[in-house]
């Protein structure tokens, strides 16, 4: 509904005497109450009826429904009642343009989207401002399947092709429109017969003709019933227009003096106090007779108005002729903040517009627009949406050539961000939704129009690569063809595989400038070692799936030791399908008889039989470095354990801020923070608890980076180790704790790792023997000794991996704004959290029902990745609520750890099963782990009783 005028009225005089209560007054009160009840039920009925007809498919008005089937109201006797407007629809659609290349692109998109919505009427394009040769070429290129007629008026010049200012711009030229509609249509490329307009097109005087902007994108079939119902402030309107942003009560864009200078002294327009009934802009839908009345005046005004004012020609002409305009909010939308364009549909749709087009009830919304204009779809204040804009005039001119790229479209994730995140930038959610909807609609329309056009003109196929970006304040691409003149792609060096590389922007790093391990660099290799046991199989799958999900750059290798030939075949077959990015390196089993050398002897020896699985780590790594196929070429290696899960990309050599745990929340948001997914968070930082002053995340020869384990390992590696590593005797306790009390992940150069590998193997065996094979961490101690011997100093950080250890950085839980347990599926990963979860310790927390929730690798059944196995049950939101209420950091860490570990692990399960279970899989999130209860197998149908009881406690199944 349009804003109504204020009715003038006098304030009622107040009564100064007390009214007397008598029978007459009582009767009046009773009658008043009866009348009020009567009005209430009638208004309620009216409101209900109005809501029920807030759809194009509503019946009872006599006009055609959206699907083209007449909705014919019937009388009480069953006879069909057909009103005067029962079958009226837009019989003809017209737009004006010049012959520029960009006009051709716009015209084809308009025609494609118009026909796609189901419009079957006549369409005419009126060309002007170009020669006959240019017009002929323009017409030759058109797609005849859209059945768009063309008329050319070479006598009309084109100094400008758009008229207006700022957001009030139109491409509709009334001068050209009048030549076509008034008289006998003598434009070129007709049949050269002087035939009256109505006769040529078989139009009656009350038939509707729609005039639209040439850059319009149609999103829905134009239905006159819907338009009339929506623009109902004017009864029986003969002309409809899009509500214009220039309206303001009792104001008009032109001054009285300007109006008088362009209108006759007796013009009705000069008598208007309020222009509400004429505050419209293209597109216009009008009866033929209304156009014929208005156009002569509009043409006269055209020459008198400045270029910036010409969008007012039709509204002023309508006011002069006293033809009230039915003002609609859904003919065309293009400006997010506008209160006159109806954007209600954005909040009412139930689909993701970045993944699919509206249909059914979504399309039937009365607020769903008929068209959009993608002149300036941008919202730079919204940081997550800043890289997604659309400017129709910046589309490359060769967009329809067979080798042209298409537009780079956002995924459905952008809609999720717009809808479900709270922007730190304080950009209203409604604006973010409108922006995302508009960009997705525009890009889909242009890409689909391109595919449709090229399917006809490219007999051997065409380019489907979607690479053309549209970014705020970034240079528009002048060509859509990879290496055409003006390309944004680098030609040297030549590209033999994959995509062409964009030219390097000033001040922006490309892949060749990145240090190994830096964000975006491929020059790092992640590696982890395992046995062939079932529990390390599923851990490896979970790690590999999480690696892919976060988009981690670099290579990933699993070194597997001790597999039979059949097991290797099965492993390779499965991995090729489930995790094609995961390389497999196979070695013998080193756990029982590893080969080593005494410090004083060059002869290799074999230890007496042992059963120490961690031997596979140093000996497996050495075998991999020596004989990997393909060879290890990356400069930087990151050594992991199989019980790791990625929750965001890992990076070093970033130059990121190094701080203490207390200094993380610096408060210097301008320097240290960024906005991601609508939330302000600190940029990548490294928590350091050592004694040095100048520390960085640099990894280079002689300098590695690792997780701090000093609380657990202390200086144990160097105690009684002189016989194992004589060179290590000179390492002080301070240096031992500072540089060598380390655990995974280890980020180290390939050169350094290769250099210390032999000693890593030997010293692990010797340390285990020295400790009488009782210390499980002998392998970690052997690594520390080897690193010290070769002077590979480690910078230790507390926030590379989260393992629920005393020396892990846990302060990020106090900075969290959301509830990490609220969403049962999607984890919350704040920027302050470490990039990795390490499953070396358990997490435990309680909910508000007294139920205990756990996550620990040793409690998970080995067949959890089977298609029919349950997923892990998700803890309720109260787990975090109770922990937060305690204000205890450890309680919050336990709550965060259990909720996040379960959800990240479930994501890995779903990602794996989506690829490996072609007929579907069990998505029942039901397995609630129970302390001290572990079974090798989860037998669905015969579930272990403790698991069954725990599941029923959480969520009872059955009637």
TrEMBL record:
Keywords: Membrane, Transmembrane, Transmembrane helix. One of its GO terms (molecular function) is glycosyltransferase activity. The chain crosses the membrane at residues 21-41. PANTHER family: PEPTIDYL SERINE ALPHA-GALACTOSYLTRANSFERASE. This is Peptidyl serine alpha-galactosyltransferase.
